[in-house]
Design goal:
Layout: E1 2-6, E2 9-14, E3 27-35, E4 38-47, H1 50-56, E5 64-69, E6 80-87, E7 133-134, E8 146-147, E9 152-157, E10 163-166, H2 168-176, E11 184-188, H3 190-194, E12 200-205, E13 216-220, E14 231-232, E15 239-243, E16 249-251, E17 255-264, E18 281-282, E19 287-293, E20 299-301, E21 311-313, E22 316-322, E23 331-339, E24 345-357
Length: 358
């Protein structure tokens, strides 16, 4: 199962414009620039609801949590770089500012302040940190505070890419209450931020994007079961696969079961009182599902050998899909895949399409 928890707020804080709030920008930046010999970085602040994260794994064993951000129009990216995520120490406000705003406004987090440029008591700490808490900067004091006891990272080489970062240790610390959930700060390594030769601009869609690429945490766990109740289909023969209960429309924020039927296209002739076309079969245990956007053909829930397994019970094959990741008024397509012991792969693409309603 793969569930989705979307972020509740985000903003970019800029060292160069240390009192600028960008809470309503549609783009988030991890940026490094040089102006008149001085170097300036930017960092991303994100927040997620603890209760949603906790309820998504109620009764679940060994869940994994992945931070997902979709990249757009990066520039001057180094050959090798690493993005780090740390749990933020201390509350902050998203604000209503934008990068292009003049004047900059006074509400929301900035490089210097957590909540407002008029609330000087809300300044990020620059010294006398609590245990396991720190901060850093290159030119201007500020830039956020974060815990060093939990951290996550993702490295890139010869590529610009979406972020898909394992933040399981951080999410579990939030859920258990070990660390207060004040969100995440995303930044480059300290060495890259301080370097006089490493620059570039990584851009990602924010909560306020007009696309379907809002930041989120994917909650992944294996909820599959597999009982051999029927004969397996023979992949060396032509196979007819269907989704017997597929509907044209589904509501969002629900978990839906899809029942899968499978049989040989040409059943062997036998002496029987019923048709061979009515005999139930099932797909092998190494079978998986995927859901893609029917318009863009992009994976929304990608094939995963651990978390999108097709199950089997006394009624046959099935899988359950969390619809909360799917946006209303869009069409989606289901793909099924089977892998055999001799490494052959069979993809079933029958234009199984449905629409999500509000």
């Amino acid at each position: 199962m793969i569930k989705t928890v979307y972020n509740t707020k985000d903003t970019t804080i800029y060292e160069r414009f240390s009192k600028l709030n960008t809470g309503l920008d549609s783009i988030l930046n991890i940026q490094k620039v040089e102006v008149n010999g001085d170097q300036y970085n930017s960092r991303i602040l994100l927040s997620f609801n603890t209760a949603e994260l906790s309820s998504s794994v109620a009764g679940v064993g060994n869940p994994k949590f992945y931070l997902k951000l979709t990249a757009t129009e990066p520039s001057e990216i180094p050959v090798d770089y690493t993005i780090y995520a740390y749990p933020i120490s201390g509350s902050w406000n998203m604000g209503t500012g934008r990068y292009a705003n003049l004047p900059t406004g006074s509400d929301g987090a900035t490089w210097v302040y957590r909540s407002s440029t008029t609330a000087t008591a809300s300044a990020w700490l620059t010294s006398s940190y609590a245990a396991t808490v720190t901060g850093s900067w290159t030119t201007n004091h500020g830039g956020g505070n974060w815990y060093t006891s939990s951290a996550a990272s993702q490295s890139f080489s010869y590529e610009t890419s979406d972020i898909s970062m394992d933040i399981t240790s951080i999410a579990l610390a939030w859920i258990s209450g070990t660390i207060a959930n004040d969100g995440l700060i995303l930044k480059k390594s300290d060495s890259d931020e301080a370097s006089s030769s490493v620059f570039g601009n990584l851009q990602f869609f924010s909560k306020d994007t007009h696309t379907v690429y809002q930041p989120c945490i994917e909650v992944r766990y294996d909820d599959s079961i597999y009982h051999t109740s029927y004969s397996l289909v023979n992949q060396n023969e032509e196979v007819v696969v269907g989704i017997s209960n597929l509907q044209q429309q589904y509501s969002s924020n629900s978990v839906t079961r899809f029942n899968i039927s499978a049989r040989p296209k040409y059943p062997a002739k036998t002496f029987a009182t019923s048709s061979g076309y009515l005999i139930n079969y099932q797909l092998p245990s190494s079978s998986y599902y995927s859901i893609v956007d029917a318009h863009t053909n992009e994976d929304v829930i990608a094939f995963d050998s651990n978390y999108t397994k097709i199950s089997a019970d006394s009624n046959g094959n099935f899988f359950k899909a969390d619809m909360s990741k799917l946006f209303a008024n869009r069409y989606y397509k289901i793909l099924l895949k089977t892998q055999t012991q001799n490494s052959e792969t069979y993809i079933y693409d029958k234009n199984w399409i449905f629409k999500i309603l509000k």
